[in-house]
Recover the amino acids of this structure.
């Protein structure tokens, strides 16, 4: 899919994703080695966005399995369309049960879910298993199975084997530690907060109206906040939101008033706001 | 750079070193890493670093262990820099500009120069090693703060709201530079220690002088066979110490009380009577990959000496701690299998497989605090390498307060204490820590330190 690490970075950038060297290198290897990519990191650093960008670059369909507490096989893998099956049973009164049964457990009544969808068909796909840590441990077992062989067995239909393996991205906030076995299947990538230069480029790209000097100041303030001992540090998503807010406020540079009034965009907890206000001398006036 | 054959070898030594630091790496990952090297090439060191991290690591917590090890096996340079050693003031000037410009690449090069110029110590420069502490002590980068700040301001980078951020930003850059200096000093020490290693192997030492940390399978087996004879010898020495103690020291209070009848002149010294009960022993053993040879041997030795004590309890940990006294008692017949049995039957790891002293010691203090009392002597066995996690000094303090004595036996040479992720100096401030690199040192220490 890619010719080099630089090629990865360049083509992701065309879609609006600015990859750090670590991100570009790991995406390149995931493609070369044909291994799933496990991306861990704090909220809002672009984990989900990365999968979307890879799909766009590859001209692939993005198949997304959003994990949550209680997600199960019928949501992740496949399910039979019971309503439709019932209709079919009541419609075909003259058949033998055997005939009916063969018919209702056929393709027509199958509801494929993301994991099955991702391994069927010949078109290129990116399978995004988002927030894997939110799912229960049993689902992890299922993922392990699917990601080992890239095949799924539907007892009534037989085994589906991927003819074309999807590019797999799993994301995690590490709210729960994923099992060692699943980790071993994957290449590991930690995305942390970007360095100053990269974050400035992201801001400029996402908020084109903001001038260079202000973008630089925005990133410096965010950097200062991240060095504080806060309950929740502002992420890239918040930096972008703040930049947009400043643009909307028509600010052309930072001052105490504008920072104090818009700090809530960056910090979500009241005690964080208070702490930052004090440390940044915002109540000096 | 080196030919691919050399790379394969360096990769396997890198993997071995990471394993020694408690990172579990299977053959699958090693193969992936080799493929990564082939796909990425060797021209860009940072790309290689990321590629190896992606293939070999499984979690964020392992990265702080990985980076310094990578720096050792894939160093930026080898040996000393080419140019003439610069003077201190010249170096500080250039460092000031690099800090002002936040030029990380330049800061890296200056760190190399700084260690070269100011980090060597010994009778002739660098004959004994390289010290980041000494480098930073001579260079004093923290004193550049005001100068760098004024520079940045003079160049117009200091106006407006963000000027208030400037000093802290510079402080963080100086901190980063200190880290770079530490990495370079570590690399040089390793270069030297590599040579030492070769030198030591050339004169194959006897098994009891082989470092536990470097002992091979055969040498460990030989050591295990030596446990019983060694235990007998030690028992004799302990008995002698016990007799001496029984003859005992003078009990001053009782001697003076007795002297009241003789007008305060102490005529009859009263000897302290030995307590009839034998002391209790508690062992806390790190059994993670890096130090398991040392722990296994020590546990066997203590078990062989168990009738010298009223009670011996043994606990093993990696990042969780569990009691293994029973395994030890029942396993006397099969000393080879001890390590495997402990790994299989005790709960030693939680979410990950690397050692975490803070967690393990904390869990001990919480769950087994009652095992330690005023008659208990506690031995902690391990290298104090915390994998960068919190050493939990409070837990050690708590254990030390309850115990009669706490000793820490560290299988690493004293010179390595405090390097990398070693929290040895911190622990050594709270409890008596001894270097215990081989069986000979161990038996000396046991004979000297075991309570009688
Ligand atoms: N390197 C980047 N290049 C471009 N945009 C980025 C980059 N990093 C983050 N962003 C932007 O930051 C925002 C948050 O990204 P995203 O939702 O992917 O975060 P996440 O890591 O998945 O967070 P969560 O853990 O909350 O799901 C998005 O708007 C994304 O466009
Ligand atoms: Mg997301």
């Amino acid at each position: 899919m890619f010719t080099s690490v630089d090629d990865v970075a360049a083509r992701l950038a065309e879609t609006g994703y600015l990859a750090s060297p670590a991100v570009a290198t790991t995406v390149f290897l995931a493609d070369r080695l044909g291994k799933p990519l496990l991306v861990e990191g704090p909220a809002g650093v672009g984990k989900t966005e990365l999968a979307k960008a890879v799909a766009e670059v590859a001209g692939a369909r993005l198949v997304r399995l959003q994990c949550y507490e209680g997600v199960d096989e019928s949501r992740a893998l496949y399910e039979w369309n019971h309503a439709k099956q019932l209709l079919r049973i009541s419609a075909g009164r003259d058949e033998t049960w055997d005939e009916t049964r063969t018919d209702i457990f056929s393709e027509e009544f199958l509801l494929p879910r993301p994991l099955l969808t991702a391994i069927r068909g010949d078109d290129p796909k990116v399978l995004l298993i988002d927030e894997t840590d939110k799912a229960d441990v049993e689902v992890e077992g299922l993922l392990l199975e699917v990601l080992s062989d890239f095949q799924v067995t539907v007892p009534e239909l037989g085994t589906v084997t991927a003819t074309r393996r999807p590019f797999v991205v799993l994301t995690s906030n590490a709210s729960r530690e994923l099992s060692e076995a699943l980790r071993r299947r994957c290449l590991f990538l930690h995305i942390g907060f970007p360095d100053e230069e990269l974050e400035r480029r992201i801001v400029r790209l996402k908020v084109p109206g903001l001038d260079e000097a202000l973008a630089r100041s925005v990133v410096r303030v965010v950097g200062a906040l991240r060095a504080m001992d806060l309950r929740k540090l502002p992420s890239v998503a918040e930096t972008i939101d703040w930049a947009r807010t400043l643009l909307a406020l028509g600010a052309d540079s930072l001052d105490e008033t504008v920072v104090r009034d818009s700090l809530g965009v960056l910090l979500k907890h009241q005690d964080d706001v208070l702490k930052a206000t004090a440390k940044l001398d915002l109540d000096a006036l | 750079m080196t030919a691919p054959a050399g790379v394969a070898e360096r990769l396997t030594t890198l993997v071995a070193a990471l394993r020694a630091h408690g990172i579990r790496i299977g053959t699958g990952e090693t193969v992936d890493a080799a493929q990564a090297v082939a796909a990425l090439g060797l021209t860009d060191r940072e790309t290689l670093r990321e590629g190896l991290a992606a293939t070999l690591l499984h979690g964020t917590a392992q990265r702080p262990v990985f980076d310094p090890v990578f720096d050792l096996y894939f160093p930026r340079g080898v040996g000393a820099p080419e140019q003439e050693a610069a003077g201190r003031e010249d170096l500080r000037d250039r460092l000031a500009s690099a800090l002002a410009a936040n030029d990380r690449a330049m800061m890296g090069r200056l760190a190399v120069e700084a260690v070269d110029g100011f980090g060597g110590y010994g009778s002739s420069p660098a004959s004994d090693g390289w010290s980041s502490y000494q480098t930073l002590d001579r260079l004093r980068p923290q004193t550049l703060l005001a100068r760098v700040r004024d520079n940045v301001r003079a160049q117009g980078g200091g106006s407006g709201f963000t000027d208030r951020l400037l000093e802290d930003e510079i402080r963080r850059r100086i901190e980063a530079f200190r880290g770079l200096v530490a990495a370079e000093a570590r690399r040089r020490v390793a270069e030297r220690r590599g040579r030492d290693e070769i030198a030591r192997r050339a004169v194959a030492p006897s098994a009891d002088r082989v470092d536990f940390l470097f002992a091979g399978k055969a040498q460990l087996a030989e050591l295990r066979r030596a446990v019983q004879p060694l235990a007998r010898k030690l028992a004799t020495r302990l008995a002698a110490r016990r007799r001496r103690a029984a003859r005992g020291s003078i009990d001053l209070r009782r001697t003076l009380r007795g002297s009241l009848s003789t007008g305060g002149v102490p005529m009859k010294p009263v000897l302290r009577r030995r307590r009839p009960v034998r002391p209790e022993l508690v062992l806390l053993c790190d059994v993670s990959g890096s130090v398991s040879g040392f722990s296994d041997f020590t546990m066997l030795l203590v078990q062989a000496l168990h009738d010298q004590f009223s009670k011996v309890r043994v606990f093993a940990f990696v990042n969780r701690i569990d009691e293994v006294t029973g395994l030890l008692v029942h396993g006397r017949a099969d000393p080879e299998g001890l390590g495997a049995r402990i790994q299989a039957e005790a709960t030693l790891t939680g979410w990950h497989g690397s050692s975490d002293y803070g967690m393990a010691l904390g869990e001990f203090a919480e769950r087994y605090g009652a095992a330690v009392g005023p008659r208990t002597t506690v031995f902690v066995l391990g290298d104090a390498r915390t994998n960068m996690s919190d050493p939990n000094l409070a837990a050690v303090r708590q254990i030390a307060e309850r115990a009669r004595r706490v000793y820490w036996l560290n299988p690493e040479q004293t010179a390595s204490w405090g390097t990398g992720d070693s929290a040895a100096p911190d622990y050594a401030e709270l409890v008596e820590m001894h270097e215990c690199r081989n069986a000979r040192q161990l038996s000396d220490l046991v004979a000297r330190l075991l309570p009688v």
Observations:
- Chain B has three domains: 7-73, 88-199, 225-248+276-449.
